[in-house]
Design a protein that fits this description.
The strands form three sheets. An eight-stranded mixed barrel has the order 10-11-13-14-15-16-17-18, surrounded by four helices. A five-stranded mixed β-sheet has the order 6-7-5-8-9, with helices on both faces. Strands 2-1-4-3 form a four-stranded antiparallel β-sheet, with helices on one face. It is of the alpha/beta class. It folds into three domains: about 10-125, no CATH class; about 230-385, Alpha-Beta Plaits; about 400-645, Alpha-Beta Barrel (TIM Barrel). About 50% of the residues lie in helices and about 15% in strands. GO terms for molecular function: cyclic-guanylate-specific phosphodiesterase activity.
C-alpha cells in the first residue's frame, strides 16, 4: 500500500531551493579560489621571469656578474624572494638567502629558469606566493561580501515568497493527511486558501458524494435488516427473527423461559367490515400495549407472528413471575376498545407454555398454540397455560437472589472464565473475553445468562462491573500471560456517575501499555439508546488507549450510526445470528448487511457462538473478520489459560 510522505511539500521545495543556492555558492567559491590562486601563480611566474631576464642581461656584460651583489639583493627583497642561486656546471656563481622567517617551507613557490644569453647558466628561485600573508578584510573583499549578502537576502526573500505561494498547497496536503487519519467529518470542507483550487473543489465534491453514499448505504443496510427481521406496521420482530432467537435459546445450555401467543379473534372480519386502516390501528394499539409491558424484561422478544397474532418470549423468569406478567398483559389489552364486529368481552386470547434447553422449537410453538386454542374455547377474554412440568426453573425470588449475590460479592466477586476470539487467518487471539460465573448455595456454577437478570432486578450492576474490572486489571498487570482481555460493561453502570468516576480513576492509575491490552464491550441495543449519555466517557476510554467493542449486535434491529460516534474498533454479532447460519439465508443476509455497514470504516466484525466447521466456512465466505465460540476453544477458568493455538 502506498504511504503518504512524512515531509510537507513546502519544506521539500524550500529545502531543494536552499540546497541548490548553497551548492551554487559553494561551486562559485571553490572555482573563484582556484582561479585566484592560479592567477597569483601566473603573476609571480611572469614577475620572476622579468627578474631573471634582468640578471641574464646583466651577466652578459663583462663586469655584470660583479655588480649583482650591489643591486640584486634589494630587488629580491622587494620581490619576496627567499633564496636565489645562479649556477653553472662548475658551481654557484651567485647565491642569495633572505632573512625572513618562513613557518611552513611547503608554501614556497620554487622554480628554475635557464639564462638564454648565458648558455649553461640557470637561476633557481624560491619565493613567497602572493597573497599568502594577507587576511580577509571587509574592505578588501567588499565586492565579494556584498555579493554573498545579496545572495543570502535573495534566498531568504525567495523562501518566504515560496512559502506564501505554497501555503494553499500545504493546507490541501494537511487536509489529505487528516482524511487519511479517518477525520472525514472534521475536514470534509476545505478553506478558500487551499490551492490548487480545482483539486480542493474536487476533493470537497468527492467527500460530499462519499458521505451521501455512506448515508445511503447505511439507510439501505438498515432497510434490509428491518425488512428481513422486523414487522413494518408495529416495529416489533417478525416471525423469522422470533423463530431464530427461540432456536438459539433452546440450543444453549441452562436456558429456560416461556413462550406466549396473543391472538386477536375475528380480525379478518374486522378487516372486511371496516377496512385496512381500522384493522391496522387495532394491530398498532395491541403492539403498543405489548411493547410497553415487555420493557422491564431486557431479554424478552416481542414479535408479530402472524397478521393478527403476537408472540412473546421471556427468558430466565420463574413461573410465578410469568403468570403475573400474563395477567397484567390481559388486563392491559382489555383496556382497549375494539371496533365492531369484534366483541369487547371476547376478542383477545392468550396461550402460554414453558420451555427449557434441549426442547424442539416446533414442539414449543405447538404447545403454545394448543394453549391458545384452549383459551379461545372459554368464550371470553382469557389466557391458558399448557400443562407440563417446568424444567430448569429457578425458584429463587428477589430476596434469595440478593442474599446470594451479596455473599458472592462480599467474598471476592465472581469467578472469571475466558474464551478467545480470533481474527481470520491469525493464530494468536485478538483477545480473550472474560466471562463472569458464580456458585449458588449448593456449589453449582451459574452462567451469566442465569444470574444477570437477577443482578439487574436487585440493582447490583455497578457492584458486579466493579469487581470484574478490578480482577481484569489485576490480571493484566500480574497475570501469567501478555494476552489482551475484553470485559463486558453494562449500560446501567455507564449511566452511574459514581461508577464513571471510579472507573476513570482506575484507568488513570494504570500504565498505558496495560490499557492497550484492555477492551471494553457494551451491548448494542443499550448503546444505541443511550449514545448521547455515554459518548463522552467512551471517547475518554478510547483516548486512554483501551479498545471499544460492541457486543450482541443484531439482537435487536438498530441503526449502526454509533460506529462513528464513539470510535468502535470491533463488533460482535449475537449468537442467534450465527447458530445454523449455513441453513438460514435470512441470517446470511443480515450478516452481509452488517459487513456492508462496517466496510471502509476499519471496524472488525466478529461472529460469536461459532459451533462447527459448517458455520465457520459460511461466515468466511460472507467475509467475516473473526470468530469466537466452542469451535475454536472451550470456555476455561483464567487459571487454566494456555497458549494453545486455534484450529
Amino acid at each position: 500500500m502506498r504511504k503518504a510522505s512524512g515531509m510537507k511539500l513546502t519544506n521539500r521545495l524550500v529545502a531543494f531551493v536552499t540546497l541548490i543556492v548553497i551548492c551554487a555558492m559553494f561551486v562559485i567559491f571553490i572555482g573563484g579560489a582556484i582561479s585566484f590562486r592560479q592567477l597569483g601563480q601566473d603573476y609571480l611566474h611572469h614577475y620572476l621571469g622579468g627578474v631573471v631576464e634582468v640578471i641574464d642581461q646583466e651577466m652578459a656584460e663583462p663586469q655584470g656578474s660583479q655588480s649583482l651583489a650591489r643591486w640584486l639583493p634589494k630587488l629580491l627583497k622587494a620581490s619576496n624572494v627567499v633564496s636565489l642561486d645562479v649556477s653553472n656546471d662548475a658551481g654557484s656563481v651567485y647565491q642569495f638567502q633572505g632573512l625572513q622567517k618562513i613557518d611552513d617551507p611547503n608554501i614556497l613557490y620554487q622554480t628554475e629558469y635557464p639564462l638564454t644569453l648565458n648558455p649553461g647558466y640557470s637561476v633557481s628561485i624560491q619565493s613567497v606566493p602572493p597573497y599568502t600573508e594577507l587576511t580577509y578584510s571587509l574592505g578588501a573583499m567588499s565586492s565579494i561580501s556584498l555579493a554573498i549578502m545579496i545572495i543570502i537576502a535573495g534566498l531568504v526573500w525567495g523562501v518566504n515568497w515560496l512559502k506564501r505561494q505554497l501555503q494553499g498547497s500545504e493546507l490541501l496536503e494537511e487536509r489529505g493527511r487528516m482524511l487519511l487519519a479517518g477525520k472525514l467529518d472534521d475536514f470534509a470542507k476545505g478553506t478558500e486558501l487551499e490551492w490548487p483550487d480545482t483539486a480542493s473543489l474536487a476533493l470537497d465534491k468527492l467527500i460530499s458524494e462519499l458521505k451521501d453514499a455512506r448515508q445511503e448505504r447505511s439507510r439501505f443496510d438498515t432497510f434490509i435488516r428491518t425488512h428481513t427481521f422486523l414487522d413494518q406496521l408495529t416495529g416489533s420482530a417478525n416471525r423469522v427473527l422470533f423463530d431464530s432467537r427461540l432456536q438459539s435459546v433452546v440450543q444453549d445450555q441452562d436456558n429456560h423461559g416461556a413462550v406466549i401467543l396473543i391472538r386477536i379473534a375475528d380480525w379478518e372480519e374486522l378487516l372486511l367490515a371496516k377496512g385496512k386502516i381500522v384493522a391496522d390501528e387495532l394491530i398498532q394499539d395491541v403492539g403498543m400495549v405489548l411493547s410497553n409491558m415487555v420493557q422491564r424484561y431486557p431479554d424478552s422478544v416481542l414479535s408479530r407472528y402472524f397478521d393478527a397474532e403476537f408472540a412473546i418470549m421471556l427468558l430466565q423468569q420463574p413461573s410465578k413471575e410469568v403468570n403475573q406478567f400474563v395477567n397484567q398483559l390481559l388486563k392491559g389489552l382489555e383496556r382497549l376498545t375494539p371496533s365492531a364486529p369484534l366483541q369487547r368481552e371476547n376478542w383477545c386470547h392468550i396461550g402460554m407454555t414453558y420451555f427449557a434447553s434441549g426442547e424442539r422449537r416446533g414442539r414449543i410453538m405447538d404447545e403454545a398454540d394448543m394453549a391458545l386454542r384452549s383459551a379461545q374455547l372459554q368464550g371470553t377474554n382469557s389466557w391458558y397455560a399448557f400443562q407440563k412440568d417446568v424444567l430448569g426453573e429457578d425458584t429463587r425470588g428477589s430476596v434469595r437472589w440478593r442474599t446470594l449475590l451479596d455473599a458472592v460479592f462480599s467474598q471476592g466477586g465472581p469467578a472469571l472464565y475466558q474464551q478467545p476470539a480470533y481474527l481470520s487467518g491469525e493464530q494468536v487471539p485478538l483477545h480473550r473475553e472474560l466471562l463472569a460465573r458464580i456458585n449458588d448455595e449448593n456449589g453449582v456454577m451459574l452462567k451469566a445468562s442465569r444470574f444477570l437478570p437477577a443482578v439487574e432486578q436487585v440493582g447490583f450492576n455497578v457492584r458486579l462491573d466493579k469487581q470484574v474490572i478490578s480482577q481484569a486489571l489485576d490480571l493484566l498487570k500480574n497475570g501469567p500471560t501478555l494476552d489482551n482481555f475484553a470485559i463486558n460493561v453494562s449500560i446501567e453502570s455507564l449511566l452511574d456517575k459514581g461508577f464513571i468516576r471510579w472507573f476513570r480513576d482506575e484507568l488513570l492509575q494504570t500504565p498505558r501499555p496495560v490499557l492497550k491490552r484492555l477492551s471494553i464491550e457494551v451491548p448494542e441495543r443499550n448503546l444505541s439508546r443511550h449514545i448521547d449519555a455515554v459518548r463522552t466517557f467512551l471517547k475518554m476510554v478510547t483516548g486512554l488507549g483501551c479498545r471499544l467493542g460492541v457486543d450482541q449486535a443484531g439482537r435487536t434491529i438498530v441503526s449502526t450510526h454509533y460506529i462513528k460516534d464513539v470510535n468502535v474498533q470491533y463488533i460482535k454479532l449475537h449468537r442467534s445470528l450465527i447458530r445454523e447460519i449455513d441453513q438460514r439465508q435470512e441470517n446470511q443476509l443480515f450478516v452481509r448487511s452488517m459487513l456492508g455497514a462496517c466496510a471502509n470504516s476499519g471496524v472488525e466484525v466478529i461472529a460469536v457462538g461459532v459451533e462447527n466447521d459448517r458455520e465457520w466456512q459460511v461466515l468466511q465466505q460472507l467475509g467475516i473478520n473473526g470468530g469466537q465460540g466452542r469451535f475454536f476453544a472451550q470456555e476455561m477458568n483464567v487459571s487454566q489459560m494456555s497458549t494453545k493455538k486455534r484450529r
